[in-house]
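seq as requested:
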Amino acid sequence: MKKLITILLLAAVPLLGHAAGPAIKLDKAHVDLRDQASLQRGAQLFVNYCMGCHSIQYQRYNRMARDLGMTEDEVRENLMFNPDHRIGDTMTIAMPKEHAERWFGTTPPDLSVITRARGSDWLYTFLRTFYVDESRPFGANNAAFPDVGMPNVFWHYQGEQRATFGGSEDNPVLESLTIVPGTGSMSSEKFDDAMRDLTAFLTYVGDPIKVERERLGIWVLLFIAFFTVLAYLLKKDYFKDVH
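struct tokens:
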């Protein structure tokens, strides 16, 4: 019995750590996977700014075209920059892993299931909370992912974001993030919308069948409800003479 209790307590430790959550409050992404225009804009942002380092190896170009309401020719013209890729290929990158590890200190992760692993709200918050940190190799840090080993690829849209810390020198606490006026080409609202589009696209990539599954689920539930009523009426008819 004591051994069983010990096993249960040890199993609960990771769950408690997960429940503690991130160090900062996550902003709600409010992604809409039925908004194909948003998903298309997110796909464009991904292939232009993220796909140089990050692959989505479980996503195919032609599947993306079908789900996002694009033709295969539109995908070839606007979202395929590797001449060796074909429309039926998965969305991988050409960067060798050994080169990536030497340049960045670690291999940039594949982002196929990033929102399933961390959540859409986490990704949306991460994309918007880079700040200037000259002590980091790429001059940027992140409030949602401290000491992240990547540059802020959207700095020219967002602008320079500065962090204000409180607490002690040994235990600094992030108090606020402030955009330096005039340093970004987008307003805060437009930048947030752009990062929401990118988050929506990667949320779709993590579960491409979700919208179709939910649509079919409604019909399945309606069928079950209809069949339940029919079965009840048949049961009443069959057993009406049974006492």
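Residues 215-243 form one domain.
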